[in-house]
Design a protein that fits this description.
This protein is an alpha+beta fold. The protein has one domain (about 10-110). It is about 25% helix and about 20% strand. A five-stranded mixed β-sheet has the order 1-2-3-4-5. The relative contact order is 0.18.
Length: about 120
């Protein structure tokens, strides 16, 4: 069973998907089939923190991966180029990039308590 997006695909996909990844299957395998998610171009946003639906919608609408990943960082380049699953939790933001044969890369960013919780990074 797949997890389903919180919105219609036409509302959330803002750019060309990088590959044929079925986000619904990936999210269901990681978080269970009831977990909601949003696709924004090559990125899949999973919001596990305690934002209201309006705040979550604002986060998705304003998502900019360059605010999360540094363009000048060689370790960030694969995430920017190929996309990632971005997981928002109360204490941190995690980025997960799926690789070949079940491998993955992960990056973690602490949440800045001084900034708006609706910021994308």
């Amino acid at each position: 069973m797949k997890a389903t997006s919180t919105r219609k695909e036409l509302e959330t996909v803002k750019g060309k998907l990088g590959d044929e990844t079925d986000w619904g299957e990936v999210i269901a395998s990681l978080f269970g089939p009831k977990q909601e998610w949003d696709a924004v171009g090559k990125f899949c946003l999973v919001q596990l923190d305690d934002l209201s639906k309006d705040e979550q919608t604002e986060r998705v609408d304003n998502f900019d991966p360059t605010r999360l990943f540094d363009n000048n960082c060689p370790c960030c380049q694969p995430f920017l180029v190929k996309g990632a699953i971005v997981i928002y939790e109360p204490e941190a933001i995690h980025a997960l990039r799926l690789g070949p044969k079940g491998t993955f890369e992960m990056a973690a960013f602490p949440v800045d308590r001084g900034s708006s919780k609706t910021a994308s990074g």
